[in-house]
Design brief:
Elements (H helix, E strand, L loop, with lengths): L2 E14 L2 E14 L3 E5 L6 H8 L8 E3 L4 E4 L2 E2 L5 H10 L1 E4 L13 H13 L3 H14 L5 H4 L9 H13 L5 E5 L7 H18 L2 E6 L2 H4 L5 E6 L2 E7 H6 L4 H8 L50 E2 L5 E2 L14 H5 L1
Parallel strand pairs: 3-9, 3-10, 7-8, 8-9
Antiparallel strand pairs: 1-2, 1-4, 1-5, 5-6, 10-11, 11-13, 12-13
The structure holds iron/sulfur cluster (SF4) and magnesium ion (MG).
The site of magnesium ion has 2 residues, from loops.
Subcellular location: Cell membrane
Protein name: ABC transporter ATP-binding protein
Family: Belongs to the ABC transporter superfamily.
Amino acid sequence: NEKILEVENLHVSFHTYAGEVKAVRGVDFELKRGETLAFVGESGCGKSVTAKSIMRLLKPPVAEIKPESRIICNGRDVMKMTGKELYAFRGDEISMIFQDPMTSLNPTMKVGKQIMESLMLHRNMNKKEAREEAVRMLKMVNIPGAEKRVDNYPHEMSGGMRQRVMIAMALACNPKILIADEPTTALDVTIQAQIMDLMRELKEKMNTAIILVTHDLGVVANFADRIQVMYAGQILERGTAKEIFYESRHPYTWALLSSVPKKGNESKEELYALKGTPPDLILPLNECPFASRCEYCMGICKEQNPMETSITDTHKVSCWLMHPKAPKVKSFYDREG
Ligand code: SF4
Ligand code: MG
């Protein structure tokens, strides 16, 4: 299976008055064609920053991708792209949808026209072709009455419909990679499910690789092929969806799993009952980033950040509990009985 994205040793900092916030600390991963990879973690864990870095969407000089970082997309070095190259790259190769469609949609322009502009720019269509294609795209994302809706302004549509338009816009250029950052968080549960169904359908139809960024492990259950759990700018555990849901070995993942609402009880209040807060990303971190909140914390955890241990080819965990000399801990699953 062909690799279309490789990220190695990604470090991203934000330069603030309080100091340098090291938001992403040595993240690496790869993405294969047509695969769905989820970045999961609490807000501030670096998942969105990682996603935006891939498209070089972070604004210097406040945000800085450190020069040792490598981002290779389809054999091309994204770190070395010029402004003009990046402009073509975003759309042709990779596009992104956000939680709030209004951040990508232009409120003063008809939605059809916005899709058409992208088609004319990236796919060299003339106006007539682009309009037909825009209508076809709106139909593809299940917008009823697409022939009329194409002339709507964003404010004339519901939140769910705007999210569909944004997906249509992101897919208009047939990108190889789609990054979806909390695409359903602002929507109610029924619409959320519809949008996830739509993304799944489109992924199968177009073989687009997807990076799904979310705080909600529940959302990825039936969607992601692989999951990486992020915390304090690092990946703490990664694996196939099955490995993360059924064979997870990291205490932080256990906390996330225990906060996934059970069927029939979808209240968001129960999410993240975890006590305490993530570490300050300005201070140096010479311990496990989860140490201050971990009920299994041992002496070594406070002295050294654990290395990544491979459980299988796909399943990797950064936790001292994986050390052969560590005490055996009853797993999350044993506790749940
Ligand atoms: Fe907890 Fe230690 Fe594992 Fe960190 S390394 S998650 S503190 S047991
Ligand atoms: Mg975010």
